[in-house]
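hey m, so remember when u said the tokens were messed up on ur end? i reran from scratch. heres the input so u can diff it against urs
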Amino acid sequence: MRDSDLIRKLLKSGLTYRAIGIIAKCSHGSVHQEKLAMKRDEEATRLAKIASGSEETESVSPQFPAAS
């Protein structure tokens, strides 16, 4: 089992996959899988905030080219 909390902290600090693998005693492939899981978790959290109304969404208006 990989230490997910440690790997996520090290990813946020900007270390390379291989350096994190050495520190966390896992493969750099495991580090990559943890990064993907972290992104999925962050996206799910963001979507939950939007759904509950606690985060405002950007309003985007269409941009049309100016008439000549």
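this time it looks ok to me. The radius of gyration is 19 Å. if urs says something different then somethings off w ur setup not the seq
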